[in-house]
Design a protein that fits this description.
With 247 residues, the chain is of the alpha/beta class. It has seven helices and 13 strands. It binds fe (ii) ion (2 copies). One fe (ii) ion (FE2) binds next to loops.
Length: 247
């Protein structure tokens, strides 16, 4: 039994015009490459966590072919909410879990067991600018109104993350793997409410996505930091190969 994770499939089988070619060379034929990698790697008894930005579809109808694709991947599939997942009303996660019962699992305000571990998570949030730069590209300031708004969204996401941890803890779990769609910190931060919560609950790993392209891959923490292991798993960073997080 193994635990795998990857994010940002950005599928568009149901709305092909919008996204064709939009994401650049790393996304060329990525649906086929990713599926072939999964078929080689992931066994039926394994768990595959998809860390948000599943579909460009704007509603359930446009997303339906993307869900079909995901359902046909091997293993148990657990989905996290990304910023592009318009089909996922944050208040209706339980409804999605009913609708896809036995096929897909949706992670928000809840948790999923993986052996002795609880898989917990939420979309997360971090301030991504606008930043103001000087002539040499150094940050001299940022949009403070946008930053204040980002802090409110992050606070709500931290409540959801705590609900996820607490649900697992109430059921006796003491070991956690934590998933976020957004990176846990932005380019200005060394830590955040998300890193502090990971440390508070003793999460072994934090796995996140959302960062696309070589200019963004190293926006946040990777590797060991204060006893927690951080991994970026956006699909283009992983070149469509899921990360094996646990055996
Ligand atoms: Fe994305
Ligand atoms: Fe994203």
């Amino acid at each position: 039994m193994s635990l795998y994770a990857i994010g940002d499939l950005h599928l568009h089988f149901g709305c092909p015009l919008k996204a064709r070619g939009q994401m650049g060379q790393a996304w060329r034929d990525h649906e086929r490459i990713f599926r072939e990698n999964c078929l080689r790697l992931v066994r039926p008894e394994d768990t595959l966590v998809l860390v948000g930005d599943h579909s460009w579809g704007r509603n359930m109808d446009e997303c339906a072919p993307d869900f079909d694709y995901i359902q046909r991947l091997p293993g148990r599939k657990i989905l996290l909410r990304g910023n592009h997942d318009m089909f996922w009303d944050a208040k209706k996660t339980a409804r999605l879990n009913e609708q896809f019962s036995g096929k897909l699992c949706f992670l928000q305000n809840n948790y999923y067991a993986y052996g002795d571990y609880a898989l917990v998570g939420t979309k997360g949030f971090t301030f991504e600018g606008p930043f103001y730069l000087d002539g040499k590209g150094r940050i001299t300031g940022w949009d403070e109104e946008a930053q204040a708004h980002a802090e409110k969204i992050a606070a709500r996401e931290l409540e959801r993350l705590r609900a996820s941890f607490e649900a697992a803890r109430a059921d006796g779990f003491r070991q956690f793997i934590m998933f976020l769609h957004y990176p846990p910190t932005n380019i200005l931060e060394r830590d955040s409410g998300f890193t502090r919560m990971a440390e508070e609950y003793g999460a072994r790993q934090v796995i996140y996505a959302h960062c696309h392209g070589p200019q963004r891959f190293f926006d946040s923490i990777q590797g060991a930091y204060n006893g927690v292991r951080y991994s970026l798993v956006s699909g283009d960073f992983r070149r469509w190969m899921p990360l094996k997080a646990l055996d």
